[in-house]
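User: I'm designing a mutation panel for Enoyl-CoA delta isomerase 2 and want to avoid disrupting the core. Could you give me a predicted structure to guide residue selection? Please restate the sequence first so the numbering is unambiguous.

Assistant: Good idea. Sequence first, for numbering, then the predicted structure tokens:
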Amino acid sequence: MAFVTGRLGRPLRSSLLQVVQLHLSRTMGASQEDFENAMNQVKLLKKDPGNEVKLKLYALYKQATEGPCSIPKPGVFDFVNKAKWDAWNALGSLPKETARQNYVDLVSSLSSPSESSSHVEPGTDQKTPGSEDVVVTSEDGITKIMFNRPAQKNAITTQMYREIILALEAASKDNSTITVITGNGDYYSSGNDLTNFTKIPPGGIEEVAKSGAVLLREFVDCFIDFPKPLIAVVNGPAVGIPVTLLGLFDAVYASDRATFHTPFSHLGQTAEGCSSYTFPKIMGPAKATEMLIFGKKLTAREACAQGLVTEVFPESTFQKEVWARLKAYAKLPPNAMKISKELIRSNEKEKLHAINAEECTILQGRWLSDECMNAIVNFLSRKAKL
Ligand SMILES: CCCCC/C=C/CC(=O)SCCNC(=O)CCNC(=O)[C@H](O)C(C)(C)COP(=O)(O)OP(=O)(O)OC[C@H]1O[C@@H](n2cnc3c(N)ncnc32)[C@H](O)[C@@H]1OP(=O)(O)O
């Protein structure tokens, strides 16, 4: 990999672009035609996607067609127009092309034949394929959100971040009592799909970093605000963001096969998921440093000893024991559980949102650094067998 060594900067950026060519079939942005098709699909939706989604669609449409919101803010009593203005204005200076792509992705997550994760009928045992990469089911008072890309070790694509946001929003309002996140296959999740960084829009890598930071902030905010008990069923190794998010869960059950790895420095990146705050709080600054700065990988038992994991189960009985326990918990009075969660978490929320915002801003800069680009080029080169 001669092109990733030595003094970096422009040569490294062009190296990244070279590697990106190998991924182009998956990386083309939405065309005007895709956008127009998506607008038509919205009119054909069988179910009302709900006000939150409609506001998102409105905002993305305006941003994609007119650019950043520059109209005067409606008065406080003009509720509908003010909500629309707020949604549009919240997109800030998101580039038109990114808004167009986000609009197309959002519509596609809503309008696949079986419909998206946000459309799970509460209280039913219903598999919700959507993109198939995130599967949402609801049964026995438990909504289960499952990473479902086992061949890629459940690496999380930008589409999956969006689907998980929608799934969490739906789960917060459905009939279920508790919500579980787990993985299909041998991994819980290998973290951010590193090919996310290869989808280079006309605005260049800067635009990728900017829209990534906006999406990451929204994604982590959903975990901070999630109102019901949120449980991680960690069926195997976890790398990166699925590990850091664990500090925002209410309980973490792990197979003894699971490992917990945050190789941020190796990737030229920094902590996210509020872990720069939750990890030192949970395990003390010294142990948090080993994980978040030096990238020490913990076994499930070590993570349990550090307080990141609630309990470890032998792989042979993991699924049986954990689900039996969760089914029993799901029968507890839902309102009492929600109120207790609010008591435990509410005084931290404001702080967590501020930390999330800061971590995302720092990461946006990191993603443009030579250190980070070098690591991604290395990974993609290995994948592309360069
Ligand atoms: C909106 C943006 C938000 C960004 C938020 C930021 C988050 C930070 C992070 O999450 S950092 C963590 C990033 N993850 C990694 O660095 C892990 C990278 N993957 C690996 O190191 C390895 O794949 C492994 C250790 C997870 C598994 O190794 P193993 O040898 O067992 O398996 P393979 O490498 O052959 O993997 C099988 C295929 O899966 C693809 N793959 C695995 N992980 C990722 C990933 N994170 N991104 C993209 N692709 C991934 C791998 O490339 C193989 O694909 P192939 O069969 O097509 O070659």
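For picking mutation sites, this is relevant: Residues 1-9, 23-28, 113-129 have pLDDT under 50 and may be disordered. Strands lie at 134-139, 142-147, 178-183, 230-234, 238-239, 251-255, 259-261, 298-299, 311-313.
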